UniProtKB/TrEMBL annotation:
InterPro entries: Homeodomain-like_sf, HTH-type_TetR-like_transc_reg, HTH_TetR, Rv0078-like_C. Pfam families: TetR_C_41, TetR_N. It comes from Plantactinospora endophytica. The keyword Transcription regulation applies. This is TetR family transcriptional regulator. Keywords: DNA-binding, Transcription, Transcription regulation.
Length: 197
């Protein structure tokens, strides 16, 4: 029983560090958060942080992975709520745009993620989450004949890049509701061009 209690305490400390890191990284950015401030806000020692994460960058990596998994979960939930394959695909794309325009998600996932981890490591996380779901949806559409036969890998990267760029642009919008509606309309037209005639 004492081991279980210690395990629970360690997990509680880890979750506290993740929550605190996420809040601070989202509001101040990775560069704006010092290690001393982070542990003070979490109410833990530096030793406790280093027990779970070997650096501030490692904590950020864990926070980013968590954010990407949540966004992927929202995309999958939106897609699975629809009936036919095409509507599932477009609903998932729209859900990604909506989720990634959340300022917290945007700052961690799209702005600081590539800068802190480097492009290759950020892409690996993206591939494991958002890009994987996009690839699966495109493969299913090609196999069912909804989209003309074509290589899915470049199409996945083109669509992913377009949606990431749109999310970053929407972050600076002075008319978010209107720009979001126009972006979704443009995305719908762009995706519609992929359909087999």
């Amino acid at each position: 029983m004492p081991d279980l209690t210690r395990r629970q305490q360690r997990e509680q400390t880890r979750q506290t560090l993740l929550r605190t890191g996420r809040r601070l990284f989202a509001t101040r950015g990775y560069a704006g958060v010092g290690l001393a401030e982070l542990v003070q806000a979490a109410g833990v020692t530096k030793g406790a942080l280093y027990h779970h994460f070997d650096s501030k960058a490692a904590l950020f990596h864990a926070v980013l992975a968590q954010v990407q998994q949540e966004v992927a979960g929202r995309v999958v939930a939106a897609a699975e709520a629809e009936g036919d394959p095409w509507t599932r695909f477009t609903a998932g794309c729209e859900a990604f745009l909506a989720a990634s325009t959340d300022p917290e998600v945007q700052r961690i996932m799209l702005v600081d993620g590539p800068a802190v981890l480097g492009w290759a490591q950020w892409r690996a996380l993206d591939e494991a989450n958002s890009a994987r779901h996009l690839t699966e949806a495109l493969v299913a559409l090609v196999e069912s004949g909804v989209i003309a036969p074509q290589p899915v890998a470049p199409l996945t990267r083109l669509l992913s890049g377009a949606m990431n760029e749109a999310a970053l642009w929407l972050a600076t919008s002075t008319r978010p509701a209107e720009d979001m509606a126009e972006t979704v309309a443009a995305l719908t037209r762009m995706l519609g061009a992929l359909r087999s005639r």
